[in-house]
Design the sequence.
């Protein structure tokens, strides 16, 4: 059996956190959830994750700013972790904006959980 993969979910909506946790835990992923980009950086400083689901619009530090900070980290394992954007206003950003920030992929809100799971699995093979 393969090792449990650790996913960090950065999302300020408790409803989306709970739904995402339920979908991903069904696949035996270990889920940690935080509410903003500053908390992402704090968690990442203490432990490693296999993937980050990053809401773009969060208080204190948004997903774009947080992703840029992660990509600038000196630890190569942490700075290259796959990051998937979760966004409801993707029209404010182009795919090119996401790629320039260092995001690997994105999933639109309202979330299609089959698509979310497929996107997560693409990076956790």
Sequence:
């Amino acid at each position: 059996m393969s090792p449990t993969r650790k996913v960090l979910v950065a999302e300020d909506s408790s409803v989306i956190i709970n739904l995402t946790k339920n979908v991903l835990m069904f696949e035996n992923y270990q889920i940690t959830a935080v509410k903003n980009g500053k908390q992402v950086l704090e968690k990442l400083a203490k432990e490693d994750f296999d993937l980050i689901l990053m809401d773009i619009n969060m208080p204190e530090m948004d997903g774009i700013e947080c992703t840029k900070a992660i990509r600038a980290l000196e630890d190569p394992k942490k700075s290259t972790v796959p990051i998937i954007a979760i966004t409801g206003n993707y029209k404010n950003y182009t795919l090119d904006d996401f790629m320039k920030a260092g995001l690997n992929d994105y999933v639109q809100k309202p979330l299609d959980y089959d698509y979310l799971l497929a996107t997560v699995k693409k990076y956790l093979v």
